[in-house]
Amino acid sequence: MTEKWREDSEYMSYVADLLATEEVQKLDEYIQHYHSTRLEHSISVSYNSYKLAKRWNGDARATARAGLLHDLFYYDWRTTKFDEGSHAYMHPRIAAKNAAKITELSDLERDIIIKHMWGATIAPPKYKESYIVTFVDKYCAIKEAAIPLTMSMKTKWQRYFSKQSA
Ligand SMILES: [Fe+2]
Ligand SMILES: [Fe+2]
């Protein structure tokens, strides 16, 4: 994962207080998409969404903050099931609840978090920034899941070619 976000002082001024919390740091203990922890995933969604929000004259601060908090939940989504609804429906609500414990959420920030599973859930985003985060989240999930696949393909190719040249 690129570490450019660390040197981006504007970005850091928006999220440094959140990054310093135990609640956010704890996300590093959970695997999200095979190759990334939930913290790494949350930072890439936050930073990439922040850059797009800036480019499209959105609220970059709200996008950066809500992007960082969009998956603020502490269970393994592959094994935990809920009676009240699917993981896609439940975890944005749990994340919003957890986020509200560490910072005040604006309407926009709450919408970004709650609607980020749009596509799998029905309610459409209310704001441009929420659309950005839901698309960036999907893009990052595909990228993060695809890295090991690419690596295993590479191994297969190497084996194939070494057989050819043997
Ligand atoms: Fe999510
Ligand atoms: Fe996510």
What do these coordinates show?
It contains 8 helices and no strands. It has helices spanning 4-7, 9-19, 22-25, 38-55, 60-69, 87-102, 107-114, 128-165. α2 (9-19) runs parallel beside α5 (60-69), α4 (38-55) packs across α8 and α7 runs parallel beside α8 (128-165). The longest helix is centred in the C-terminal third of the chain and has 38 residues, at 128-165. The chain is globular and about 60 Å long. Bound molecules: fe (ii) ion (FE2) (2 copies). One fe (ii) ion (FE2) binds at residues 70-71, 91, 116-117. One fe (ii) ion is lined by residues 41, 45, 70-71, 137.
CATH topology: Hypothetical protein af1432
Structurally, the number of domains stands at: 1
Distance between the termini: 36 Å
Question: Which ligands does the model contain, each kind named once?
Answer: fe (ii) ion
Strand content: under 5%
**In CATH, what is the class?**
Mainly Alpha
How would you briefly describe this protein structure?
With 166 residues, this protein is mostly helical. The chain has eight helices and no strands.
Helices and strands, with pairings:
Layout (H helix, E strand, L loop, with lengths): L3 H4 L1 H11 L2 H4 L12 H18 L4 H10 L17 H16 L4 H8 L13 H38 L1
Helix pairs in contact: 2-5, 4-5, 4-8, 5-7, 5-8, 7-8
The structure holds fe (ii) ion (FE2) (2 copies).
One fe (ii) ion binds next to loops.
